[in-house]
What we know:
By secondary structure, the chain is an all-alpha fold. Helix content is 75%, strand content 0%.
Amino acid sequence: MLSSTAKNIYWMGRYLQRAKSTARLIEATQRMALQSRGEEAAGVALIFGMEDEFRQRQQQSSGRLPNLIDFLVIDENNPSSLVSSIGAARRNAREERNNITVDVWESLNGLWLELSERLRGNRALLDRGALIESVKKQAVMIFGAAQVTLLRDEAYNFLQLGAFLERADNTARILDVKFHVLRPDGSPHAQELDYFAWSEVLACIGAVRTYRRIYRSALDPMKVAELMMLRRDVPRSVHHCLWMVDQSMRELAEAYGTRGEADRLAGELHARLRYARIDQVFDAGLKKFLGGVRGDIATLSEEIGRQFLLD
Length: 311
């Protein structure tokens, strides 16, 4: 496969996953803003690593949460906004029409046309909630179309690689920022817990009911962290995502007949999450552990670029 083709499909997967994750995060932030002092905006910007950019937008008008919503939903100057992410995914997909199915293309193109139509109107009257909900649902449909229609070849593996690498990084960021906002000392033990705040941490990855099914107990910070990091059976956990990344790398290695540094890093990262124990993670420090994982995800992304995408 040409490196340009691999690059387009890989980044299509990353941008689609970014849009889907952003939509969920905004929904959870809006719900928490109704019950708190409105301090969620800075935390969400921190998750995306865009605190400085958000502060600059915030200085231009009053109010916190509305600025955040516009910054993350309709701001074309923000590369992580919903509009920017869907637009970038659609451009990548358009370049590779021969390597994706009609179902995938029509679902993605239809979402872009819907967003474009909404944005052509008066933005002051734009229903942000409906737009966010549409992106969340349509992104699920696009990934669903890919799962049931794409040929299991290199194109599929690069799409999976991009999507799961983006998802792993996103989940690690959410857990790191939101856990330490609620528990600044990093300890999972507390006399009293804010039930709604911890529920919204799980809602960011759509795992509130999943937590209840697995643990059948009251919310506990250590168990929340374990679910988001170490449970391989939770589709948005860091462990599950890195397992899928490692699997995709193995299939690409079989297709190309060679292995490189990216393959070694993917296997090492997966093994770290596979054999980690939550009590040992907290003994060493959750922030330190997540910082190491996030740093190695970034390194793996760079190595994938060098090994396959000629970056």
